[in-house]
Amino acid sequence: MIRRFDNPQGYKQFIRSCTMRAGSGDDIGSVREVMLVSGLPAKTSTERLEKLDDDMHIMIFSIIGGDHRLMNYRSTTTLHVDKETKGDGKTVVIESYVVDVPMGSSKEDTCCFTDTIIGCNLRSLARISEKMACMIRN
């Protein structure tokens, strides 16, 4: 689900739709334009896939345009086996980012906004993944 650069709305609840502008979503340099849900301080975001490594379980993308204030944003998502579950097949997903602090905003406000969006996305991913795992087991 995470590796689907062409379908971020599959678990990112603030994305209404996604259109590929270049590439298929499987190749480096693919560009997507996402339409955001109403209520956010933006309507669109243009994002480029920088790295997609299925063996290392890493995806990196950068925001390259849009009508928002997240300038020079770069997200790195990694997947790790949860060693504490003793082989129960659980995965830990970590998303980290770098972003410039826009003029008129503080580092704290920028990080709080970004952390909130990422936290909501990761909770949504967990819910969907747990439902999928239950369906597979049943």
From TrEMBL:
Record has Lipid biosynthesis as a keyword: no
Keyword list, A-Z: Abscisic acid signaling pathway, Cytoplasm, Nucleus, Protein phosphatase inhibitor, Receptor
An annotated Gene Ontology molecular function: abscisic acid binding
GO cellular component, one term: cytoplasm
Subcellular location: Cytoplasm; Nucleus
Transmembrane domains' residue ranges: none
Gene Ontology biological process: abscisic acid-activated signaling pathway
Principal location: cytoplasm
Gene3D superfamilies registered for this protein in UniProt: 3.30.530.20
Protein family: Belongs to the PYR/PYL/RCAR abscisic acid intracellular receptor family.
Protein name in UniProt: Bet v I/Major latex protein domain-containing protein
Organism for this UniProt entry: Fagus sylvatica
High-level lineage: Eukaryota, Viridiplantae, Streptophyta, Embryophyta, Tracheophyta
